[in-house]
Amino acid sequence: MARWWRERLDPEKHRDHFSSGRWTTPDRPADRLIPAWAYFIEVCGFRFEFLSLSQMRECLRYYEQKVFPSSRQPVFAPESGEWLHWYERLPLYLREEPKRQKVVTALSRALDAFASEAD
Fold first, then answer.
1. What is the model's pLDDT at position 101?
2. Other CB atoms within 10 Å distance of the CB of residue 3
3. Hey, which end of the chain has fewer CB within 10 Å, N or C?
4. H-type helices in the chain, by residue range?
């Protein structure tokens, strides 16, 4: 059973796993009156953390693929040495077909729920 929720964005507590660096701290929102959110989805014993719905959509597009792309893409960040793409840091067991389907279902439902809250 998957579950999802959102919390107010706290740069001290939440991390941006999709950035070019490794687990960077998100920027504080420019306008503090407009709430910024961190979104969480827990499925198959793993907790996804997103800082925007666009990150969640990107993750959903990735898991909708039955055959995953090669991870052998050269990337180099001089300040931290070689680093991994966000999808290369995910546990491999989530790529197994039954779990992949659960992840897709959970991401789709959570995205629909969060999008309806934003409207």
1. 96
2. 11
3. C
4. 53-64, 97-118
pLDDT band at 75 (very low <50, low <70, confident <90, very high): low
- Distance (Å, whole) CA 77 – CA 42: 30
Alpha carbon of 33 to those of 16, 22, 28, 42, 62: distances in Å?
21, 29, 12, 29, 33
Model pTM score = 0.79
34 burial via Cβ count (<10 Å: 0-12, 13-18, 19+): exposed
Q: How far apart are CA 71 and CA 87, in angstroms?
A: 9
Phi-psi region of 96 (alpha: psi -120 to 50; beta: other; left: phi over 0): beta
- The count of domains in the chain is 1
Per-residue pLDDT at 41:
96
The position carrying tokens 């439902």 is 109
